[in-house]
Amino acid sequence: MKRRLLVKGLLGGLGGVAALGLQGCASQQIEQYANEKPALDLRTYFNGVIDAYGVFTDRSGAVVKRFSVVMQCQWNGAQGVLDEDFVYSDGTVQKRIWRLTQLPDGRYTGVADDVVGTAQGRAMGNAFNWQYTLRLPVDGSVYEVQFDDWMYLMNEQVMLNKATMSKFGVRLGEVTLSFNKRKP
Fold first, then answer.
1. Which residues pair with 136 in a beta bridge?
2. Which domains does the chain have, with CATH numbers?
């Protein structure tokens, strides 16, 4: 409960400080992964069933929530659907359905019901960077938080994912996941 109040307090009370223009340090760029192998093809990796396991950590690095996800993924040409079923350590469940579009130059867009606007992403080498604003429910309120999501293909079955969650440019925590693609 304390952690929920801390997250709620951070989400609700950042307006004044963040409005002063707090910015994070220079972030990594997708181009630095251009020569990394194995090359990530989202249409190949996110096709079939994927199991994912993750944690949400707060600003101090403490684990606030654990979760698992089963993803049913399929593509039809340049259009993909990632149907995600989440189960959290506290017993709550959630569904998110991403609808992705592949564009030229390794770029992708995506929409989901709890995403504000359109997510923008780009794949290069073994990496994929995905940025979006998510409507996050916390203790009866819904907050819009930004995600800077990085995925790294390790081999044809395993991909690691680290996402930074922020509000008004202030880092709130991180989500770390391991994706494991089921063999057909």
1. 143
2. 2-15+32-181 (2.40.128.20)
**Model confidence over 33-51: pLDDT tens digits?**
999 999 999 999 999 999 9
3-state SS of the chain is CHHHHHHHHHHHCCHHHHCCCCCCCCCCCHHHHCCCCCCCCHHHHCCEEEEEEEEEEECCCCEEEEEEEEEEEEEECCEEEEEEEEEECCCCEEEEEEEEEECCCCEEEEECCCEEEEEEEEEECCEEEEEEEEEEEECCEEEEEEEEEEEEECCCCEEEEEEEEEECCEEEEEEEEEEEECCC
pLDDT of residue 26: 55
